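Lab notes, practical 5.
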Amino acid sequence: MSAGFRPSVWIAAARPRTLPAAVAPVLVGSAFASRHGAFRTVDALLCLGFALLVQVGTNLANDYFDFVKGADTAARVGPRRAVASGEVSPRAMRRVATGVFAAAFATGLGLVAHGGPWMLAVGVASILCGIAYTGGPFPLGYHGFGDIFAFFFFGPVAVGVTYFVQAGGFPRDVLIGAVPIGLLTANILVMNNYRDAETDAAAGKRTLVVRFGRNAAVWQVALSHCAAVAVPFFLWQHGYGLSVLLPIFLAPMASLQVHRLAESRTPAERIRLLGGAARYLALYAVLLSAGILA
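Output from the prediction step:
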């Protein structure tokens, strides 16, 4: 039975634990803009609104398309999905996802004034990729490109655009600072795919975990954490103060996360790891932003 617009169902479908992936790049991009004396509150809020709406729209579209394509079934071990559980009809989910993407597009139009007409192309590309993650004739997530999508759009694109609409240009330090945000966002996706490897394989969803196995996924997460620890040292060597090294204090947490991923055996353990990856991204973004501003 469809739940209509029962708030709890739709909040769960929006997957709030993934939303740090939308907030982190805006926070870091705005910190760089502020350091360079160009922070603009309205533009930062427009970037945040656009990022959040695209993230939620992507999550809702994923709920719909994974059900249609058979990836979400009774055998799935993760949190309940609204369409697969029968709480929301496919038609309702498709309509709401479309409405959220339309709201994202309208929000993004506000950035054209400062970012120029090409911002329209960036916004449309972001929305189309959000849909194409699990939908369309070549769903990115089903062909192993989901990690690349997550890194590129939540790292260089989101951080870079947030900076650009406020300060103009794409300085090297901003683009380098975007790398760990993209990598740690991709780690959230790896955790999700690690948990769902068996059901994804049965549905023909060829994520990198399915293609290369869980050991490769552990190495991917570990190397991403190593890169995230290295970037603050680069910024420090290029004129930033010692405070930019604050994120390295998260290294023990990163090591523990990798160890727990490698040792995890049950769905409950892997669900907790997904939430932990999102919290780690949020903490990293806050510490890096504080270090950039200090």
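Observations recorded by the TA: The mean pLDDT is 91. The radius of gyration is 19 Å.
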